[in-house]
Design brief:
Elements (H helix, E strand, L loop, with lengths): L1 H16 L2 E4 L6 E2 L2 E2 L3 H10 L3 E6 L6 H10 L9 E3 H12 L4 E5 L2 H9 L3 E2 L6 E4 L7 H12 L3 E4 L5 E4 L2 E4 L1 H12 L4 E2 L5 H11 L6 E5 L2 H9 L4 E5 L8 H4 L6 E3 L2 H10 L2
Parallel strand pairs: 1-4, 1-13, 4-5, 6-7, 6-8, 8-9, 9-12, 13-14, 14-15
Antiparallel strand pairs: 2-3, 10-11
Helix pairs in contact: 1-11, 2-11
């Protein structure tokens, strides 16, 4: 009983120290088209405590505006400044360090538009960079083109490392799975962006003006969501509503600062502190 009381007090303390909650979406806030129970109550608790939240998804299959509309259909209204994607991080990195180099993007039409609107030069046959994403329109022709360009010397990059995307009824092969196929064919490994990489943390800190030590990364994946926090000076809060199951904690090198059943439970802890 004493040990349980100590765990609960530690959870309360960690949440109280957090000024910005960076919230994953797939498997954390919703699954497919269904909001996870208690997710909206968590946001209300964050606002009631005078804290901030930012949605961040590694899922680059859709444009940010589509996620805003999806959340609206679920009864959650946010502005563009309250959501960031791995696509945003990747675009910022390319514009900062690779100027006008040509990019062969293996992504959905929505991601292609986001890159083009940001001024990224997209090309198919003479690209200097092959950028892999969560491409739900992937074809063998795209896969072959990307592998050929990489063998010919193009840089190999990817918007995020997620292997599977949780959906209602199971999982879909994600960007990391596509990259694994390319690596097997070319012998080259990609340079990843998104969570858990430092470029994501840097963009969040710059955009939200909150020190990393006061940021809590909330999600269902140990190797992306939680690692983003614990590996870069922030906090990592795991929820058990998506990919990770309790047994995974025993073998994972990444250890969360706290584990919650869901966002709903986190919201209850937040309000207990008043």
């Amino acid at each position: 009983m004493k040990e349980m009381y100590g765990i609960e007090e530690r959870k309360k303390c960690l949440l109280d120290q957090t000024e910005l909650f960076v919230i994953d979406m797939d498997g954390t806030f919703y699954c497919g088209e269904k909001m996870i129970d208690g997710a909206l109550d968590f946001l209300k608790a964050v606002v009631k405590r005078g804290k901030q939240f930012l949605f961040f998804t590694n899922n680059t299959s859709r444009a940010p505006e589509e996620y805003i509309e999806k959340l609206h259909r679920m009864g959650c209204d946010i502005s563009r400044s309250q959501i960031m994607t791995a696509g945003d991080v990747t675009i910022r990195y390319l514009k900062t360090y690779y100027g006008d180099q040509r990019v062969c993007l293996m992504g959905t039409p929505q991601l292609e538009r986001q890159f083009a609107d940001a001024g990224i030069r997209l090309s198919e046959d003479d690209a200097e960079i092959v950028m892999t994403a969560f491409d739900m329109t992937l074809t063998y022709e795209k896969l072959d083109r990307g592998c050929r360009l990489i063998r010919e010397g193009a840089s190999f990059m990817a918007t995020h490392p997620d292997i599977n995307c949780p959906v209602e009824g199971g999982f879909l092969p994600d960007c990391g799975a596509i990259c694994a196929a390319i690596t097997l064919s070319t012998g080259r490994k990609p340079r990843y962006f998104g969570k858990p990489h430092k470029e994501t943390v840097e963009m969040i800190v710059d955009s939200m003006k909150v020190p990393v030590g006061q940021i809590g990364f909330v999600g269902d994946r140990l190797y992306t969501d939680i690692a983003t926090g614990v590996n870069h000076g922030g906090k990592g809060f795991l929820v058990l509503t998506g990919e990770t199951v309790p047994e995974d904690l025993e073998t994972s090198e990444v250890k969360p600062d706290a584990v919650f059943e869901s966002l709903g439970e986190m919201g209850k802890y937040l309000l207990l502190q008043e």
